[in-house]
Amino acid sequence: MTEAPRPTLRLDKWLWQARFFKTRTLATKLVAGAHVRVNGAKTDKPAAQIGPGDTLTFPQGHQIRVVRVLALGERRGPATEARTLYEDLTPIKETPPATPKYEGGGRPTKKQRRDLDRSRKPPLE
């Protein structure tokens, strides 16, 4: 009784199909730069074979993404189809509070500027 071989796919191709990167070339460059971990081990081979159950860790934008491969895609389809290929394990970070916005009306008029200057300068004596 022989086991069926585990279905696998190239790492760069899967990252592209799952829509983490806009082009396959970008995915290849990230993997070749040794910025991707497969099951905790760094890899620099775009042709590394991955399959369902593998965990990938890689940077995307300003965050580190952690995803578990659930399925291998047949094609690079729509985003709804791509979301079925993985489970997102990325820890949710608290977003910093937004910076307070200036409530003024923009640039002061000349009259407002003169008033500001008068209020800032001490009287001459």
TrEMBL record:
Residues 81-125 are annotated as: Disordered. Residues 114-125 have a biased composition (Basic and acidic residues). SUPFAM superfamilies: Alpha-L RNA-binding motif. Keywords: RNA-binding. Residues 9-74 form the RNA-binding S4 domain. This is RNA-binding protein S4.
